[in-house]
């Protein structure tokens, strides 16, 4: 599935997909979390999903990964890296709540949720738990710095 996150796909479908994503993306009205939630299909694990055919292959794309990729300056995504939710809301598509990071960092975040506080993930960003909601000004820049 990872092979779809490459520059030819981005160049071909990028703008079109961003448009269809924005149609199903709405701001959560009921909370202060600032999450932007998905109003369309979810996969069996509860993550927003978009079905797409590219070069005769069918893909079920996780929308947070797709959106992060299309909006970021990255040419491609490393299959070993997840696009994690800092806010732990699976349906959230607020770019400021998404972090591109190694899978192991993502799984560490599960501990934070169950303990109700963030133990820190340096050089990656902290979890956004209800008590510590904040926004980051340039998340892409921050993610790229973390990867280098
Ligand atoms: Zn969120
Ligand atoms: Zn954490």
Automatic annotation (TrEMBL):
<dbReference type="InterPro" id="IPR044925">
    <property type="entry name" value="His-Me_finger_sf"/>
</dbReference>
<dbReference type="Pfam" id="PF05551">
    <property type="entry name" value="zf-His_Me_endon"/>
</dbReference>
<dbReference type="InterPro" id="IPR008704">
    <property type="entry name" value="Endonuclease_Zinc-binding_loop"/>
</dbReference>
<dbReference type="InterPro" id="IPR044930">
    <property type="entry name" value="Homing_endonuclease_His-Me"/>
</dbReference>
<feature type="domain" description="Zinc-binding loop region of homing endonuclease">
    <location>
        <begin position="81"/>
        <end position="116"/>
    </location>
</feature>
<dbReference type="GO" id="GO:0004519">
    <property type="term" value="F:endonuclease activity"/>
</dbReference>
<protein>
    <recommendedName>
        <fullName>Zinc-binding loop region of homing endonuclease domain-containing protein</fullName>
    </recommendedName>
</protein>
């Amino acid at each position: 599935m990872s092979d779809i996150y490459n520059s030819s796909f981005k160049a071909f479908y990028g703008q079109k997909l961003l448009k269809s994503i924005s149609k199903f993306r709405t701001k959560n009205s009921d909370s202060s979390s600032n999450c932007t939630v998905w109003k369309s299909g979810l996969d069996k694990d509860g993550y927003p999903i978009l079905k797409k055919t590219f070069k005769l292959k069918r893909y079920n794309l996780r929308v947070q990964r797709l959106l992060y990729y299309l909006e970021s300056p990255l040419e491609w995504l490393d299959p070993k890296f997840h696009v994690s939710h800092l806010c732990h809301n699976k349906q959230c598509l607020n770019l400021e709540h998404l972090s591109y990071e190694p899978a192991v960092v993502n799984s560490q975040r599960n501990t934070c949720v169950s303990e109700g506080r963030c133990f820190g993930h340096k050089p990656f960003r902290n979890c956004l738990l209800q008590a510590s909601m904040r926004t980051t000004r340039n998340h892409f820049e921050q993610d790229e710095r973390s990867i280098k």
